[in-house]
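Issue: copy button drops trailing tokens. Both records pasted manually instead:
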Amino acid sequence: MWLSDAVMSGFHSPTDPGRLQAFRIVYGTVLTTRFALSFGQGGWTRFAPGSLSRRLAEQRFGPQRGRLLAGVYRPALIVRTAASVALAAGLVPRLSLLLVLAGAAMELLYLKSPSAVRFTLLTGACLMGAENLGHGLHIEHHPSTANTWAQVLLVAVTTDLYWNSAFLKLRSRQFRTGLYLAQMMYAYPHLKDRLVYRRQHAIPSFVHRHTGNLSTRDIRLWRLVSVAVIIAEFTLPIALLLPQTTPYAVAAGIGMHAAFTALKPRQLITFSGLALGTYLAFAS
């Protein structure tokens, strides 16, 4: 297995640099989508004079720093979006990546649940460790040690993400028993029309129509789904590393993340896009 060879050699065994170069394109594309969406649904007017977000920023950081954040916010939105496009296109990739990371880190200052931002920063830091990010949309496939350390690091970050998520779900009795998903399906048709913004969920109608009644049958069904998700998150990193099981693991991962994203399209598009993109790093 290439991963054990890389670790045993002190990260001096050759790998395919194209794996990280392809992930750089995926990373830039996903962040372009995230940053472009941030212009809508009130994102452009965040920190406007008299707004609640402006007041909260001034209370948290002080009046002077709050005004400074409000002043650089809109220019930062534009710069980071342009940088993510440049990163995906391979134009000055290292400088573009630095600007993208800075723009993503800015969200830590005002988002209430910045989990996706943390994952963005971690995977971006892995890319920063690559010596050969490539240029343009061309992908090299000549084995070298330039990206070995970064590829191992990206695999480690993704594995930790999945295993930590599985462990937390396993510890949650509400999720483990299927009650969490059953309650979500039950509440969804009653609350979807009261959401502030449309299209925050994309659950197929037949799913909540046939499994949203909180009956014993429904809870039992969602218990099976919950257990399947926990098992999948535990086994996916290992299955992705084994050539014999890689195609099946990729298919399972795509299906799982598609289901996750249907629950929260806007919130999980970054997480799911980057997580699926990291699968490129698992192959030799």
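Record 2 (pasted manually too):
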Amino acid sequence: MDKLKGKAKEAAGKLTGDRRMEAEGKTDQTKAKAEGALGAVGDRAKGVKDSLDDDKK
């Protein structure tokens, strides 16, 4: 959701010449990418933990 919101803000900023809005849009997109990466790392860690738990059984 943040990625789409960021793209919209960035586009609106470019159209209106509002550099602050454009920068906020880019920031929102970067935030969304970071959250996605963090989620992927968490999923991988859970998978490793589950795998290790299965090996103990």
